User: What shape does this take?
Amino acid sequence: MLTTLMLALSAIIAYLLGSVNGSIIISRFLFGQDVRRHGSGNAGLTNFYRIYGVTGAAGVIAIDVLKGMLAALIGGLLLRLAAPEGFEAEFTDTGRVTATFCCILGHSFPIFYGFRGGKGILTGVSCVFVIDYRAALIALFIFGVLVAATHYVSLGSILSTVSVPVTMVANGFSTRCILIAAAAVLLIVLRHHENINRLIHHRESKIVFKKDISHKIDNDSF
Assistant: This one.
């Protein structure tokens, strides 16, 4: 009973934290606008940067990173309180991964903003740093290599995300944790369905590395 209660509590908290959307908050606070009314309509870092440039981007990053890490930490702590003796580590991992899924769900479909949010990459990788920093570093490395090689941010985002449960398998996480992580990855991949369709048909725009590239970014992976 206590385990169910703690799991439900951590899931609710993580979802609500995920619903605190950095792009929407900063665009309203600094510019008096809703970022979703411009560009692609996505409430993520890429669309925010395309519309407003670097001004306020640090605030967006700070909010989305902090909410992800906090959600995973709280999820692990709460479920650990319900753990039988000797199962503290397993319960902590399960709580963190469950909170990660719920936080990404909140970021994607925020209750505070009409269920129209972002795609969960930045928030997700922030959660993963709490779960297993090695998986997060590998994901970031894959993202950087793919974007540098192909100039497709969406491709780097999708494949780096897919790498996380694979790394978790290699690092000995439980089947339960891996399945929940895979569900989170599936959610992110589904949120990128339009990007995937454009990639398949060779219509996805590439990022151009210039001093000012905000007008060149035409995908919204974050």
Notes: The radius of gyration is 17 Å. Residues 84 and 91 are 9 Å apart (CA to CA). DSSP finds ten helices and no strands in the chain. The longest helix spans residues 57-81.
